Amino acid sequence: MAHINLLPWREARREELKRQFLSILGLVVVAAIMLVVLADRVVNGQIDDQRARNDYLSQNIRVLDAQVAEIKDLQRKRNQLIDRMRVIQELQGNRPVIVRVLDQLVRTVPDGVFYTKVEAKEKTLSITGVAESNNRVSSLMRRLDASDWLQDPNLDSVRAATMYGDQAATFDLKVMVSLPQDSEGEE
């Protein structure tokens, strides 16, 4: 015999599928919310970790900047000290040269010639003086030219003057200081 169901089974089936769909939809929504919350916590944790790393780096950068500034200050002081030492060494090295040059000035001055002013600017000496005659000035020029330490005497001017009632010549000349080749090893 055939079994006939006269109840509205399709309607009940639809209601059952609808209830299953809504419960699955609710579970999916809950799962999605939980995933979003979980993802938010993970991302926020990573952001906090990165901020902590950035803060650590910023603090170390400040420390390093202070150290770099101190190093630059020390280098500046070191360079100043090196410059001072160089000047002192040059002065120490030039001390014998100055003595030799003054000795050569004394040795080259002929009788009847007097220096009134001697100025040094770098390697040039400017000499002002008085001579009994122009011949004495010429003799001075020859002696300066023959010196190992003095070279290229250049007479700027000679003027006639009277000194203690006698005729005299005042002169201005420039001469270059040169270091002889064998004297550089002596320093």
UniProtKB/TrEMBL annotation:
Q: Which residues cross the membrane?
A: 21-39
Q: Give the range the annotation lists for the signal sequence.
A: none
Q: Does the keyword Transmembrane apply?
A: yes
BP-aspect Gene Ontology terms: type IV pilus assembly; type IV pilus-dependent motility
Pfam families per the UniProt record, alphabetical: PilN (PF05137)
Q: Which residues form a coiled coil?
A: 64-91
Q: What is this protein called?
A: Type IV pilus assembly protein PilN
Supply the source organism for this entry.
Chromatocurvus halotolerans
